[in-house]
Amino acid sequence: MHWAVKLKVKSKNNRIVILDIWRGLAIIGVVIYHFAFDLRLLEFIQTDVTQHLPWVVFARVLAGSFLMLTGISLVLAHGEGVRWRVFFLRVFIISGAALLISIATFFAYPDMFVYFGILHAIALFSILALPFLIVPLWLVSISAVLVLSLPFVYSNPFFNDKIFSWIGFWQTPPFTADLVPIFPAFGATLLGVFFARTILKYNLFKNISNISFKGVWVRFLKFASKWSLLIYLVHQPILLAILYPVAAIVKPAELTKQQAFYEACFGSCINISGSAINCTAYCQCSKEQVEQGDLWEIITQPVLTKWQSQTISSISKLCRAISQD
Fold first, then answer.
1. Are 71 and 147 within one domain?
2. Does residue 244 sit in the same domain as residue 262?
3. Residue at 142 is within a domain
4. pLDDT in single tens digits along all 325 residues of the chain
5. Which of 58, 148, 294, 317 has its CA 20 to 30 A from that of 128?
6. What distance in Å separates the CA atoms of residue 81 and residue 208, rounded to the nearest whole number?
7. What is the DSSP letter of 209?
8. Does the N-terminal peptide bond of residue 184 adopt cis geometry, omega within 30 degrees of 0?
9. Does the pTM of the predicted model rise above 0.90?
């Protein structure tokens, strides 16, 4: 991600704590989101965080935060003149990290690898935003609004293809783990540029930098902010290194399958008999019999053979007798 920016308000070592807190919270949010994504991937949970509205909003807020911070940091670091060596070093590091993400996800998830994710966007947007450090503020604001709004008024199936999807304007988003297209995402970076330049224009950054926050949580967030790029690169391998062995032991897919069977059985039973006590016993017995006989493939078949029908009927009779005792 985008590491903390050093201010020139008092000395080169001064930092704006609010920005550190913001960035720290954002990178922690990324870890939380990817943890939930991994839980769904390994079938510990059924909620698809890529489709569930609260999680989708959460992800957009996180991405928007980092993109706005990119614009703010660009102004603070180069608003008085681009320090080209520092600028290109930063872009080189982030681009290299983006390439690592692409390579790693290509081998891990070739069908949904990240070809233009948040790091790719930050590297490109840092370059695209440079002219907006010197153009009139009104042009920055208009450009931000246009970039943010255009995808809502124009789309074309031409941009559905992965080769062009990084631009935006697609009608159907391509299948990928992370996509941050220029339109509308670059608008968030321009908003950051506009925000930072406006505050600098009215000489308010000094007041903001003097706001003091103390406590262990502040130190933790400042640490997370400082090392946000490293955290972004290593947190997924660490999470998966923990969750995969746990999944191998717990076998969440099996538990999910059993739970789904039980819930379907109970719903059907309660509609017929109306007795929750009998249905609980009946469905628990049925689940155990299917599990013991490893009959999961049979019960999902749309058409059963004579032997399969007899097997299912025997289980039903046995469990009905047990549930009525």
1. yes
2. no
3. yes
4. 333 333 333 333 446 888 999 999 999 999 999 999 999 888 888 888 988 999 999 999 999 999 999 999 999 998 778 999 999 999 999 999 999 999 999 998 898 899 999 999 999 999 999 999 999 999 999 999 999 999 999 999 999 998 999 999 999 888 888 999 999 999 999 999 999 999 988 887 777 766 777 889 999 999 999 999 999 999 999 999 999 999 888 777 666 777 777 777 888 888 877 678 888 888 888 888 887 877 777 776 666 777 878 788 888 888 888 877 6
5. 58
6. 22
7. H
8. yes
9. no
Q: What is the DSSP string of 106-135?
A: HHH-GGG--SB-HHHHHHHHHHHTGGGGTS
Clarify whether residues 209 and 270 are in a common domain.
no
Residue identified by tokens 């080209």 is: 84
What the block records as the tokens of 279 is 């249905």
Cα dist from 306 to 116, 310, 318, 319, whole Å: 53, 6, 18, 20
Rg, the chain, Cα only? 27
- Residue 206, CB-side half-sphere exposure with 13 Å CA sphere: 6
Tell me if 225 is assigned to some domain: yes
**Are residues 232 and 257 part of one domain?**
no
Number of domains within the chain:
2
Distance CA 6, CA 13 (A): 6
The verdict on 216 and 265 lying in the same domain is no
Distances from the Cα of 118 to the Cαs of 67, 134, 263, in angstroms? 8, 25, 40
6 by DSSP, 3-state: which? strand
Same domain, 232 and 138: yes
